[in-house]
Each structure stands twice: as C-alpha cells, then as structure tokens.
Amino acid sequence: MKRQVIQNVLNLPGISGMALIDGRNRPFFFGPDISLNSQQQDALAQGIQQVVETTPAHFDTFTFRFAHQLAHIYKLEQGLILLVLITDQMSLSDYRTAIGQLKATLVEAPHNAVPTFRLLAGCVTLGSPVSAAEISAVEAPQAEPVAADRGTLTPSCREVIEGLNHLSEGATQYLGKTMVINTWKQSRPAHPWLEQFEVQKDGHFTVAADSQIPLTAEQHQWIKDWVTAFLGRGGRTIRNFQTLVTGQTLTPQQQLLLLGPPPRA
C-alpha cells in the first residue's frame, strides 16, 4: 500500500474524509473534516455494513447524502468497504483518477488493509495541494475508472415521494387503492409537517414543499415512523405484509430511506 496514493486522495480539494471498514478490525476514519467520536464511527460503520449486505451483488458503488456532503461507498474484495466523503465542489475527473489508484492499492492486501491504512494515514500531511499531474505520476497498479454510481440514497422530498409511491403501488396489489389510501391517512403520525404529504385518489403522493430540499434528521424520522405505522396496519390484514410489499417494490436504497437499516441478526 502506498502512502502517496492515500495522501493524493486526502489532499484533493473537496475531500472531507475517508473510512475503511472490514468487519474484523475497528473501522478507521481519517480526514480534515471527520468530527465523529468513536461511538458515532462504530454506529456509522455498522450501518454501512448493513446497507452493503442488503444490496444486490452487482452494486459495487453507490452514493448517499450525509451531513451536507456526498458519501461514496465502494465494495472491494474480501468484505472490504471504502467510504469517501466529498463536497459538491469536487472535481470529478481528478477524483476518479485518485480513487481508482486508491482502490487498486487497497486490494493488494485486503485482509490487512485497515491496520496498514491506519499506519500510513498517520504519516500523511494534510493540506498540501495536489494536481492531476501529480496524481497521474504515482505508480500504482492499473485500475479501471470508477463507474457511475448505480444507487442513490438522498433524504430529500423527491426521493421520499418516489419511495412512498412505489410502496403504495406494491401495497395496492394486496389491499386495493381505497384501503391503501385510508391506511396511509389513519397511520399518519400527528406532526403538522407531514400534512403537506397528500395521498391522491390513485394512491400516489404529492407534496407542497420544494422536492429538492433535503430533509432534516427529525423530518426523516417522522417519515420512517409513518411508513412503519402504515406497514403495521397493513400487517393486520395481510400476513407478512411488510416483507411482501417492501421486498417486491422497493430498492435496497429505498428500504434504507423509508425503514432505516435492518436489525442485526
């Protein structure tokens, strides 16, 4: 593993930090804007592992928004997971080159990647500007460019509406439109903010708010509480209702968005 490869990534303008997770060693977080304590790091690492475990095998890269940043997750070999936090101002051309080299060097020894990464990152000097030419000059195994993200988990009204509509469509197959509409209305938590989500006659949702505005953590929790209550009511009528509806109609990202991480076995 090459220290210069790690330094080139961390010193890219727009990089907030990185984490390496393998499920065997303590996850390692490092970067200029990493401000999570050890408990928060462990919780985030566990959540990421749960998400990765529920995604289809062909999903090797996906993205979600985390604390006003974009979080890119890369599934590597031997259960190794790389998390990279970036800002919206990141130059994607420089980023793809640097991440391609980092992924290549990490998988040289995936079983020892976390402790080696921790050791080398301690020698990295943060804040030194790095150019695309310097990145290209680093000797590293040839790596394919990072593929476009194949899954997105963004807690915005738009993404919530899409997930709720898919859930309604799946539920309609079992309950019918009228019962689905009534179940949504009856299970809505008593929060005035949720009243802007209106259920139409076809069982689909509309929202009065700007669909691009990210949800706050509290608003996101209200949505999840509503979905949980909806599925609970539906389960009184149809056995295994939640499993039937969510498993057939929601993507793994939408399941995480609307229900949160699955419980650990």
Structure in words:
It contains ten helices and eight strands. It is α+β, with helices and mostly antiparallel strands and 265 residues long. It has two domains: 3-152, Beta-Lactamase; 154-259, no CATH class. A hairpin with a 6-residue loop joins strand 1 and strand 2. Helix 1 runs antiparallel to helix 3 (92-106), helix 6 (157-175) crosses helix 9 (241-249) and helix 6 packs across helix 10 (252-259). The longest helix has 19 residues, at 157-175. The model is unreliable at 128-154 (pLDDT under 50).
List keywords for this structure.
Beta-Lactamase, two-stranded antiparallel ribbon, 8 strands, alpha+beta, six-stranded mixed sheet, 2 domains
Strand order of the largest sheet: 2-1-5-4-3-6
How many domain units?
A: 2
CATH A-level architecture of the largest domain: 2-Layer Sandwich
Shape: elongated
- Give the averaged pLDDT, no decimals: 77
Strand % is 5-15%
- Find the CATH topology of the largest domain: Beta-Lactamase
* CATH-level-4 superfamily name of the largest domain: Dynein light chain 2a, cytoplasmic
**Main sheet characteristics:** 6 strands, mixed
